[in-house]
Amino acid sequence: MIKRLLLALLALVLLLAAVLAVNTLRKGSRQLDVSPIPELAVDKQAAAERLAEAVQARTISSRTDPAQNADQFAQLQAMLQARYPKAHAVLKREVISDLSLLYTWQGSDPKAKPIMLMAHQDVVPVSPGTEDKWLAEPFAGTIRDGFIWGRGAWDDKGNLIAQMEAIEMLVASGYQPERTVYLSFGADEEVAGERGAAKIAALLKQRGVRLDFVIDEGLLITEGIMPGLAPPTAIIGVAEKGYLSVQVSFDAVPGHSSMPPPAGTSAIAMMAAALRQVDGNPMPASISGVAEDMFATIAPEMGGFSRVALSNLWLFGPIVRQQLEAGASTNAMLRTTTALTVARAGDADNVLPGQAQAIVNYRMLPGDDSKAIMARLQGQIAKSLGHERFSLEALPGASEASPVASSQSEPYLLINRTVREVFPGTLVAPGLMLGGTDSRHFADISDQIFKFSPVRARSEDLARFHGTNERISLDNLAELIRFYHRLVTMGAKASRTPSTRSPT
Questions:
Q1: Quick one: which of 107, 158, 342, 393 has the most CB atoms within 10 Å?
Q2: How does DSSP classify residue 131?
Q3: DSSP one-letter code for 94
Q4: Which residues are catalytic?
C-alpha cells in the first residue's frame, strides 16, 4: 500500500515537473528581431560641453511662485537658441506661460498624425546639508572622469539636450519629416506641470491636434538590478500611477494634560489608532495588468528558477508576489500604495490639542480610482474608532492613473525596435511608471504615451536621481542622441514598416 502511494506521489511529481518544463520552454522570447544599423557619428565631447552649459542654469521651479528663477530659465533658453541655430531657423518656437517651450517642426504630410518628444527644463533643488557630499559643485556643469556632473544632467536636461542635438543634426542633414514633430519642454514638471505641459496640451487640443505618440522621461535601461536577468533591460513605461493625498482631521475637546479624557478619545489617540489601521491594511497586491505583461516579457530571458517561477505564476504566483512585496519599488508595481506622510498635533507638552491632522498619500494603479480609495479610507478609520467623528479632504494636485498604452501598438514597437538598434543586446519590456511625469497632461490628445529615458542605470546609480552626485556619462549622452535621432528619423515617416518579433 505504502509502495503504491509512493509511486503515485512520484508520478505526480514527475507530471508536475513535466508541466513546468513544458510551460517554461513554450514561452519563447518576445524580443524583436532587429538588424544592426551603422553607429551614428556623434561629437560626444561637444555635446557634453553643451549639456554642461545647460546644467549651469539653476532652473529650480516653484509651485507657488511662477516667476522664481525666471532669469535662469532665460539663460537656458538663450543657450538653446545660440547653440542650436539650425533647429531654431526651421522649427517654430512658442513660449507658453512665460517659461515653457513648444517647438513645431512642420511635416510634409498634413494628413499624418504628429509625434511629440518631451523633456523638462526645471530641476529639483539640492537638499540642504548635502552640498559637501557632492564630488563636483551641483551647478558647475563639471566634465570629469567620463561624466557630466550636476543637477539636471540626468533629470532632465540630459534628455532635453539630446533631443536638441538630434534635431540639429537632422536639420543640418537636410532631413524633412513627413509627420509634424513637436518638442515640449515644460518649466515646472517638478511641481506638477500645471503651468507648462498642461497649458501646452490644452493649446494643442484647442488647435485640433491629435498625436500619434508621445515619449517623455520615465523608466530606464537597468543593468544588474533584477536578479536572474543578466542583459541590460530597457523598461518602457506604458502607464503611470495616479496621485492622491488625503488630509484626515480629528476633532476633540482641548484641555489640560492633568485631566486627560478617557483612553482613545483624545485627538492624538484617535489619529494614532486610525493611522495604525490604515498602515496595517494596505491595498491588495496582485501580479496583473502592466506588471503581468512585464514579467511575461522578461521571463523567457531569465535563467534558473526565476524563469521557471515567472513562467508558471499559476503555481508560484504567491511565492513571487511575496518576494516582490519585500522590495519597495517592486511592491509598488503590484498595488496602489499607501504612505503616511504628515502628522500634526499639539504645540505644548501640557495641553491636549483640540485637533490632530494626518496626510495619507496614495499612488494609484491603473484601474483604481480616487473615489473608491476615499470610501475605503473612510471605512478603515470609522472601523478603528468606532465612530465617524472625523473628516477627510482630498488635497489639490490629485490625478487619476493614466490610461495604459498598448505594448502591441505600432508606436510601442517603434520605440522597442529603436532601443534594440541603438543599444544592441538590450532587452525591452513594458513597465509601470511609479512617479508622475508631464506626459500625463496629454492623455486627451494621444492614446499612446510612453515614459522612457534611454539612460543606463545600475543599482548604485538610482540614489543619484533627485539625490547627490547626479551625473551621466559622455558615452551614454551620445547614445541618447543616437536614440532620438533614430526615433525621429523612423517615427516621423507617414507610414512605418511593422516590427517583427523573434520566433516564440
A1: 158
A2: G
A3: E
A4: 122, 189
